[in-house]
Amino acid sequence: MSADGFTYVVRKNGDVVISHHGRAATTVRGSAAREFLDAVDAGDAQTVMARVTGNYKRGNERHARAHP
Predict the structure, then answer these.
(1) SS3 assignment, position 19
(2) How far is CA 48 from the centre of its chain?
(3) How do residues 17-59 score in pLDDT, each as one tens digit?
(4) Helix (H/G/I), strand (E/B), else coil: 21
(5) What pLDDT does 27 receive?
(6) What is the pLDDT of residue 35?
(7) What pLDDT sits at residue 29?
(8) Which residue has the higher pLDDT, 63 or 20?
(9) What pLDDT shows up at residue 1?
């Protein structure tokens, strides 16, 4: 599964608004917003946004845990 459809906007006050398919999913503020922007710069932006919004669990975690 690949994360898709996420976008983000940085507001003047430093808050980051993350949207999924055009709908606001979450707002990240303060030090968490700075950490989020660093993570986006360092890695796959779509995956980072999926993890921050909690939209990455798809029910296969139990099976994945048992995988070698």
Answers:
(1) strand
(2) 4
(3) 999 889 999 999 999 999 999 999 998 898 889 888 886 666 5
(4) coil
(5) 95
(6) 95
(7) 96
(8) 20
(9) 40
CB within 8 Å of 34: residues ≥ 6 apart? 14
Q: What single-letter amino acid sits at 11?
A: R
- For residue 48, how many C-alpha atoms fall within 13 Å in the half-sphere facing its CB? 18
Instruction: Please give the Cα distance from 67 to 20 (Å, whole number).
Output: 30
Long-range contacts at 13-20 (CB < 8 A, ≥ 24 apart): 18/49, 18/52, 18/53, 20/49, 20/53, 20/55
39, 16 Cβ separation under 8 angstroms: no
CB 10 within 8 A of CB 34: no
Find the radius of gyration of the CA atoms of the chain: 13
Nearest Cα residue to 41 out of 29, 31, 49, 51: 49
